[in-house]
């Protein structure tokens, strides 16, 4: 993880599914947990979903607040 990854969490929209269009940082915890159980997609989106799940699971969403525009 690096600073660019955190920036991507607050700028990259979810490309599909129930929350399509919502930035990854705003996805609800239960949705992130579902991906963690069922498996995340391959590629960049999957990597960001795993990172966001860890941030949410460890109650660290506040770290993203300064990065929001």
From TrEMBL:
Record InterPro entries: QSregVF_b
Superkingdom of origin: Bacteria
Pfam families associated with the record: QSregVF_b
Protein's name in the database: Cytoplasmic protein
Organism: Salinisphaera japonica YTM-1
């Amino acid at each position: 993880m690096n600073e660019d990854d955190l920036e991507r969490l607050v700028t990259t929209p979810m490309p599909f599914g129930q929350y399509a269009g919502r930035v990854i940082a705003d996805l609800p915890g239960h949705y992130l947990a579902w991906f963690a159980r069922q498996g995340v997609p391959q590629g960049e989106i999957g990597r960001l979903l795993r990172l966001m799940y860890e941030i949410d699971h460890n109650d660290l969403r506040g770290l993203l607040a300064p990065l929001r525009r």
